[in-house]
Amino acid sequence: MNPGRPRVRRRRRDQDLLAADHALQAEPAADVGGDDAHRVFGQAEQVGEFVVAAREYERLAQTAKPPLRQEYALRGVSALIKAGQWREANDRLATVDVSRLDSHFQAWKRLLEARLALAQNLPETALRLGSSLLDGHA
C-alpha cells in the first residue's frame, strides 16, 4: 500500500469541496433579480472587507423573508469564514434553519460546515461532511 495514497484522496476531496463551494457561491440561492445589495456587498468582499459584508448580510437577513433571509444569513457566514471569524461563523450558522427550504440551501449549509471544519483543522469532520455532500445526502 502506498503511504501517500490517502493524502492524494484527501487532497482530491478538498479540491472537490472547494469546487462545490465555488459553484454554490456563484449562483444565487434565491431569485432576487437586480438586488443592489448583492452588488454592494460583493464589492466589499472583493476588496477584503469580509467582516463589513458579513454585518450587512446579517442586517439584511433580519428583515428579509424566507428564502432570502437564509440566503443573506449563509452569505454572511461565508464572509465571516473568509475573515477568519470562525467562532462567530459557527454560532451564526447554527441558527440558520434551512430544513423547510430546497436541497440547495441544505447543501450550502453543509458545505459551510465543512469549510469551517477545514478552517479549524478538523479534516476528518470536513471529509465526513463533504462526503455526505458528494454522495447527495445534504
Structural description of this entry:
This protein has 138 residues and is mainly α. It has helices at 5-26, 36-46, 50-63, 68-82, 86-95, 103-119, 123-134. Helices cover 73% and strands 0% of the residues. The longest helix is centred in the first third of the chain and has 22 residues, at 5-26. The termini are far apart. Mean pLDDT is 79; it is low at 26-34.
Task: Output the keywords.
7 helices; globular; mainly alpha; 138 residues; 0% strand
Short description:
This protein has helices at 5-26, 36-46, 50-63, 68-82, 86-95, 103-119, 123-134. By secondary structure, it is mainly alpha-helical.
Radius of gyration: 15 Å
Inertia-based shape: globular
Mean pLDDT: 79
Stretches with pLDDT under 50, minimum 5 residues: 26-34
The main sheet comes to: none
Element layout with pairings:
Blueprint: H1 5-26, H2 36-46, H3 50-63, H4 68-82, H5 86-95, H6 103-119, H7 123-134
